[in-house]
Amino acid sequence: MKLKEDINPLFLQVFRSVVWVYSVLTFLPWYFFSGAGTNLERARRIKARSISGHPAGPYRANNSQEKLVALVQPGVDTLDKMFEYAAMRFPYRDCLGTREVLSEEDELQPNGKVFKKVILGNYNWLSYEEVYHAAKCFGSGLAALNQKPHHNIAIFCETRAEWVIAAQACFMYNFPMVTLYATLGPKAIAHGLNETEVTHIITSKDLLQSRLKAILRDVPRLQYIIVVDVKPTSWSDMPGGITVYNMDAVKELGSKPVHDRN
């Protein structure tokens, strides 16, 4: 490989000239036809002004100088209406993406600690329409399992697509949500469930097995456990008065007409 000093200066100058001419000839058409000038002007414009006249602010967007915008669209004034509006406007857009765990490896760090390295597959997407339909059926299924509006329901689950679907279902059917961190210990879990007087909890198979199962007898009001994992699992050793459902089974129950649910 030749260094810059080894190249003929005349050849280098000709090469630079050709590159410069090519750049000019291609840049000008791109600049005018791509709208780059308009985008640059839009980026440089003043987007907000101080409503007090002082540089310290507070600032408001130019299109909201008189008052703050309260609604994105007329009538869209709650979280469930916002998601319904998004599902109607963008039904086939990607909404929730999940990556399959292909394998797990232990990775040794320089300090001697071992971290769990997860190998993930490609994203599998649910559209806005699919998520909206799933949330609506799930909320209806919860109502069929005696979850009442204005009565708390707990979500004790890792961050995943099913968490979001469950939350949207609660918004739709006016079930106040109690969220518990997946890292809480047994006493904290029992305290949170008892303080909020929940009768239904949404969780994962792993958390039910590793955290929740040990304290079920300490939560006397609990009646229903909904496991979000796809594969149905039999839980025959639950305390009396507690029924375990799979999330898909609850959605299927909610999709049926009321007179066909029994």
Strand order of the largest sheet: 6-5-7-8-9
List segments where confidence is low: pLDDT < 50 over at least 5 consecutive residues. Answer: none
Net shape? extended
Radius of gyration: 28 Å
Any overview of this molecule?
With 262 residues, the chain is of the alpha/beta class. 39% of the residues lie in helices and 21% in strands. The protein contains 8 helices and 9 strands. The strands form 3 sheets. Strands 6-5-7-8-9 form a 5-stranded parallel beta sheet, with helices on both faces. The radius of gyration is 28 Å and the shape is extended. The N and C termini lie far apart (80 Å). The mean pLDDT is 88.
Summarize the helices and strands and which ones pair or pack.
Layout: H1 9-33, H2 36-44, E1 48-50, E2 59-61, H3 79-89, E3 94-108, E4 114-127, H4 128-144, E5 153-156, H5 161-173, E6 177-180, H6 186-196, E7 200-203, H7 205-212, E8 224-227, E9 243-246, H8 247-255
Parallel strand pairs: 5-6, 5-7, 7-8, 8-9
Antiparallel strand pairs: 1-2, 3-4
Helix pairs in contact: 3-4, 3-5, 4-5, 4-8
Question: In a few lines, what is going on in this structure?
Answer:
This protein is an alpha/beta fold. The N and C termini lie far apart (80 Å).
